[in-house]
Amino acid sequence: MSEKRIIIALDFASAREALTLVDQLDPQVCRVKIGNELFTATGPSLIRDIAARKFDVFLDLKFHDIPTTVARAVSAAADLGVWMMNVHAAGGQIMMEQASEALAGFGDSRPLLIAVTVLTSMAEGDLGDVGINCKPQEWVQRLATLANAAGLDGVVCSAAETSMLRASLPAEFCLVTPGIRRAEDTVGDQKRVVGPAEAIANGSDYLVVGRPITRANSPLEALEAFNTAVAGVS
Ligand code: C5P
User: Residue 140, Cβ neighbours under 10 Å: how many?
Assistant: First the structure.
């Protein structure tokens, strides 16, 4: 298959659990995401192990620090061979620009660098508490525009924001969307979910899917169903 839209969130506590799943998967038909829990538990060796199995790894560590520190962290992640990584757009334009510049020397193996705008766990009142007095969607739009201006490749966004961002940002700006469920999947702690075909039709490029695949009786069958659902949707 030419387009691998599904990024499987490896939300596990140990390398053993993550590799048990990864070793059932075909890197031709999916990508994987390693987040803070798994990375903190296992360290960078797991990234090398999974990248060596030819998987595209999205390293979801959401860097947010002074520009020099983030640039060095981004460069260190690129050295590990990741395909995509992210920073917090709230770190500001200079932080994002320096992070992007840190990847310039990686040539054809340059990973994609995307930004987190507003965490979906933050509602309007939570933003007000930290001094941001606007609606979450306005803040998302502003931070995504800043990320684009800083030369980043895209943003993580909720399904509720995809159409808005797609309408205002360049076609090649990459939108990565979690909170994806088929009708038969358990919603869990996600607040607003959207189906895989709908998310792609609304403008997402990649879908982050965790438990509907990782906790399925047959992860392979679940992945196949997600891939079938998005095949041919544009
Ligand atoms: O299991 P589930 O499909 O809900 O997993 C979604 C994944 O996407 C998790 O790794 C979660 O941390 C991540 N994510 C999210 N919402 C965001 C950002 C990331 O669900 N706004």
Answer: 22
Tell me how far the alpha carbon of residue 105 lies from the centroid of ligand 1, in angstroms. 31
Residues with CB under 6 A from ligand 1: 9, 11, 35, 119-120, 156, 158, 178-179, 188, 190, 208-212
DSSP line for 81-118: T-SEEEEEGGG-HHHHHHHHHHTGGGGGGPPEEEEE-S
Q: What is the pLDDT of residue 25?
A: 97
* The pLDDT value given to residue 221: 97
Pick the atom of ligand 1 nearest to 9's CA.
10
Q: What gap in Å lies between CA 180 and CA 167, rounded to an integer?
A: 21
- pLDDT tens-digit map of 16-55: 999 999 999 999 999 999 999 999 999 999 999 999 999 9
Domains of the chain: 6-231 (3.20.20.70)
Listed in sequence order, the residues at least 6 apart from 219 whose beta carbon sits closer than 8 Å to its beta carbon are: 21, 24, 25, 213
**Cα(67)–Cα(94) distance, integer angstroms:** 7
Pair 207, 179: CB distance under 8 Å: no
Tokens for 128, please give them. 């007000």
Contact 112, 84 (CB under 8 A): yes
